[in-house]
Amino acid sequence: MTKRFSGVDIDESAGEGRHTLRLGGELDIASAATLHGAISRMLARASPGDAIVLDLSGLMFIDSTGLAEIILTSQLCERDGHDFALVPGPRVVQRIFELTGLIDALPFLAPPADAESEDSTPPVVS
Q1: Residue 43 belongs to what H/E stretch?
Q2: pLDDT, greater one: 65 or 48
Q3: Is pTM beyond 0.85 here?
Q4: Domains in the chain and their CATH numbers?
Q5: More confident residue, 118 or 62
């Protein structure tokens, strides 16, 4: 179910020991508290050992407050014994992780093999 809050869309799904929050829109100072609430609720429902995944692929923007919320989520997962992973966002979102040096410190999943690059030309459909 997708919920829209103050600039961020949050779509939560769970199954087979994995809880995923797919984020869309903007993760910034205005929406970080909303994400924090969603993460807190998800962690309360998760069983020990469940994986927690934040999917950033739908984000258009992230600021330092959003980045701090992601770091906090990683720390909470470590504290509670959950695996934690991030699905990479578009280039503009990934850039903040590169600039801060967190691209190698946070557990990003490899993008799917069939994912299109933002720089690639879309296929022509006849």
Answers
A1: helix 32-45
A2: 65
A3: no
A4: 2-100 (3.30.750.24)
A5: 62
